[in-house]
Give the backbone structure.
Amino acid sequence: MRILVVCGAGASSTFVAQRVRRAAHERGLAYSASAGTELSLPIDLDSADVVLVGPHLSHALARIERDAAARGTVVVLLPPDIFTDLDGSRTLSLVRDAVAGGQLAAGA
């Protein structure tokens, strides 16, 4: 599963991506996670199964969801306190819940 974490400039998304990647690795999951920006999103969407959107980009959520739907990519708006998830486990749970909800094939 390829996870893309998107924020405004890429700084906070880098921390979230590192944490969720580590949490997935510790659980033996073949997930990758990378960081991107709102500006790089049109290109980055082509290599993502799930897009985690920073809470400060909620104003752009409808557009992001529209662009992602055209590619079959799941979008999850992260909660405002996600940056307190220091080990990535809560973020990983959000991803897994999106997958389990039937939005994406579990083997991806």
User: Anything to note?
Assistant: The longest strand covers residues 2-7. The helical segments are 11-26, 41-44, 61-69, 89-103.
